[in-house]
Amino acid sequence: MKVLITGTVAVGKTQLLDQFEQLHIRRTVVLPNVAKQLIKHFSSENHLLAFQDAVFAEQIENEISAEKEHPKVILCHRGVLDVMAYAELYGHPLRQEWKAWTRSEYDQVIFLTEDEKSKDTPQKTFYSEVAKKIRNQIVNTGLPFQTLHYPSWCEDRRQRNLKINLLSLLF
User: Fold this and answer.
1) Which of 15-29, 60-74, 116-130 has the lowest mean pLDDT?
2) Which of 71, 131, 142, 159 counts the most CB atoms within 10 A of its CB?
3) Which CATH number is correct for 2-118+136-151, 3.40.50.300, 1.10.10.10, 3.40.50.150, 3.10.20.30?
4) pLDDT for position 65
């Protein structure tokens, strides 16, 4: 089973997956956030499409490599849906290979988002726009997905509840 963990910017995906990885669940592989690893190589907005292409290539390489280990579960930290959402956000065309990969490769998508009571800021407005693009991409693929909301004001409870929800979806 390949599960894509995606969602709002700075929603806690990395913290959640780091904690999940520390559980050392047998035959479970947690893939890293490829975009975060590659961003330092793309400093200009003129290179945003090239950045999305690089993220796509690295993401599928990681996913294929993980599949060779024959795990029970592969947890993808972000994925090709995110590549498509960011490309769309910045007005770039969606490549056919991105669409083909997304529709065929994920068994489940978990979309993490803040609750609506979070404080309004310009940054949150941008994050909300990103979240809408990601959610639209999920819906357009027809993949099964689960949306998990959390109260942004409660870090410890949020992580515990997300972990419990994630575990119940997977096992």
Assistant:
1) 116-130
2) 131
3) 3.40.50.300
4) 93
Domains in the chain: boundaries = 2-118+136-151
pLDDT digits (tens, 9 = 90+) for 7-57: 877 777 888 888 778 877 788 889 988 888 887 777 655 577 788 888 889
- Whole-number Å distance between alpha carbons of 1 and 41: 32
pTM of this prediction? 0.79
Tokens describing residue 133 = 């693009």
Residues in the chain: 171
Q: Are strands 2-7 and 73-77 parallel, antiparallel or unpaired?
A: parallel
- Region 121-138: mean pLDDT is 76
